[in-house]
Amino acid sequence: MIGAPQPQVHSMLAPQALEAQFKIASQLTNIAFWLVLGLISAWLFRRNRDDRYAA
Question: H/E element holding 23?
Fold first, then answer.
């Protein structure tokens, strides 16, 4: 079986600075997403709990 041809030189397509910016941006976006998801979940849970036991 013949595989795909391999390049003579293995190099990156993106420069190091762009790679670093992407890593930082993706991590900050991930943190913001999970923080917002957690806050919304906590708010919904507390709202549901308070409505259930209201007299």
Answer: helix 16-52
